[in-house]
Specification:
CATH class: Alpha Beta
Family: Belongs to the sulfur carrier protein TusA family.
Organism: Oceanobacillus kimchii
Domain UPF0033: 7-31
CATH architecture: 2-Layer Sandwich
Protein name: UPF0033 protein YrkI
Pfam family, one: TusA
Radius of gyration: 11 Å
Strand content: 35-45%
Largest sheet: 4 strands, mixed
Length: 79
């Protein structure tokens, strides 16, 4: 997977992983991928719902040693 940006949101509680992801995804181009690392268990539901509501594509998510990892492909910019 060709990741454009990695966001470290470990140690942050809701809603900060979403806030940081929204800010970071604004700095990449449509079609590019952002990788997010979070430790808040609520991040799984929050980021999944946020990606869907924004038209972004959640490519993959998994947990590794207490760290939740997400790969989200940025949606096309609205014309």
């Amino acid at each position: 997977m060709n990741v454009k940006k990695v966001l470290d949101a470990k140690g942050l509680a809701c809603p900060m992983p979403i806030v940081r992801t929204k800010k970071a995804i604004g700095k990449i181009n449509s079609g590019e991928i952002i990788e997010i690392h979070a430790t808040d268990p609520g991040a799984k539901n929050d980021l999944t719902a946020w990606a869907k509501s924004g038209g972004h594509e959640l490519l993959e998510s998994r947990e590794e040693d207490g760290v939740f990892k997400f790969w989200i492909k940025k949606a096309r910019d609205k014309q």
